[in-house]
Amino acid sequence: MAHHHHHGHSHHHGAGRTLIWSLALTLGFVLVQIFAGLRANSLALLSDAGHNFTDALALGLAAFGFYFAAKPADESKTYGYQRAGVLAAFVNALSLVVLSVFIFWESYQRLLTPTQVEESTMIWVASAGLVVNVAIMLGLQRQKEHDLNIRAAWLHMLGDALGSVAIIVGAILIHYTGWQRVDPILSIIIGALIVWTARQVIKESLNILLEGLPQGLKLNDVMNSMRSVEGVVDVHDLHIWTLGSSDHALSCHVLIEDMPSSESACILVRINGLLNDRFHIHHTTVQFEHTRCAADSHCYSVLESEG
After folding, report:
1. Among 1, 65, 123, 281, which one has the highest count of C-beta atoms within 10 angstroms of its own C-beta?
2. Of 236, 298, 266, which is closest to residue 2 (Cα–Cα)?
3. Given a cut of 50, is residue 108 above it in pLDDT?
4. What are phi and psi of 301, to 5 degrees?
């Protein structure tokens, strides 16, 4: 058995704190948007509150990822609790699709019967939303280069900042043209953004729950790279899956020449180095099979490692 662990506690704590205050700020602003949207009679503001909620979901999932990654495995959950956040993402994304259907229906009704809105409230609230989104983006800027979850949350914030700009432009158009249908048209656009975001979350979370190949990886690329490692004759029965949001695991059979375990340990180190550095796979179970007795199913050695 060979175990290797890499820790970055200070980075994780800093990123965790940033995610928590960003989440609190976003949820607070969602409440403000709902109140202002009802008061201004603006479906676009209410729709953007739903879009902001998708951002809160992204931030919450990233925060969940940090929390559950730190939660140790136990006798009943031997892989830990990392998929709890993924399961929550799947359920919440489905609820967002339902929300979008409601937005589309209301937008259709308002296109048929335009309703007067308070464009000044739309401008002020959307401007405040733009400030909130930019502030959170700046807070996540440093960590987004090192963590896929945070990068995804940052992109959500960028999308919502653009949504705020669209509402400001739409409110200005309503003010100068009096064309009230701008509000439901904006709502349809924002609803489409919510569906797009939810679709991505459903696709990614379902892939993890079904233990599919992690996004961005190609099975043949990993297999061919492992076959190029010195001492490796062949690789088969290769499986790669995701434990949590970005924590990947691998198991495989590796055929090597007949040699004692003390010598094959060097091959394992090289394999782990390749998987860790090139493919960011840190949890591996490698079963060595020797060429002399490859046909004998009882002749093998199993080596596990964690990087």
Report:
1. 65
2. 266
3. yes
4. -135, 145
Given 160, 186, 209, the domain boundary residue is 209
pTM of the model: 0.62
Instruction: Judge if 130 and 154 occupy the same domain.
Output: yes
Same domain for 80 and 139 = yes
- Domain tally, the chain: 2
Q: Is residue 214 part of a domain?
A: no
Query: What is the tens place of the pLDDT at every residue in 238-297?
Result: 999 987 766 789 999 999 888 877 778 889 999 999 998 898 898 899 999 887 655 555
Please check whether residues 62 and 138 belong to one and the same domain.
yes
In a domain, 300, yes or no: yes
Please report whether residue 64 resides in a domain: yes
Of 263, 214, 204, 216, nearest in space to 238 by CA: 214
Residue 115's contacts (CB-CB under 8 Å, 6 or more residues apart) are 41, 43, 180, 183
Parallel, antiparallel or unpaired: strands 232-242 and 300-306: unpaired
Contact 183, 117 (CB under 8 A): yes
In a domain, 173, yes or no: yes
Residues 6+ apart with CB under 8 A from 240: 213, 214, 217, 219, 222, 248, 249, 250, 281
What's the first-to-final CA gap in the chain, in angstroms? 12
